[in-house]
Amino acid sequence: MAGHPELLIPASSLEVLKTAVIFGADAVYIGGEAFGLRAKAKNFSHEDMQEGIAFAHGHGVKVYVTVNILAHNRDLMGVREYLKELKGLEPDALIIADPGIFEMAKEICPEIERHISTQANNTNYAAYQFWWKQGAKRVVTARELSLQEIREIRDNIPEEMEIESFIHGAMCISYSGRCLLSNYFTGRDANQGACTHPCRWKYAVVEETRPGEYMPVYENERGTFIFNSKDLCMIGHIPELVEAGVDSLKIEGRMKTALYVASAARTYRKALDDYAQSPELYQKNMPWYLDQISNCTYRQFTTGFYFGRPDENTQIYDSNTYVREYIYLGIVGEVKDGMCRIEQRNKFSAGEEIEIMKPGGENVSVTVKRIMDEEGNAMESAPHPKQVLYVEFEGGNADVYDILRKKEEQAAQVHC
Question: How far is CA 14 from the centre of its chain?
Answer without folding.
Answer: 14
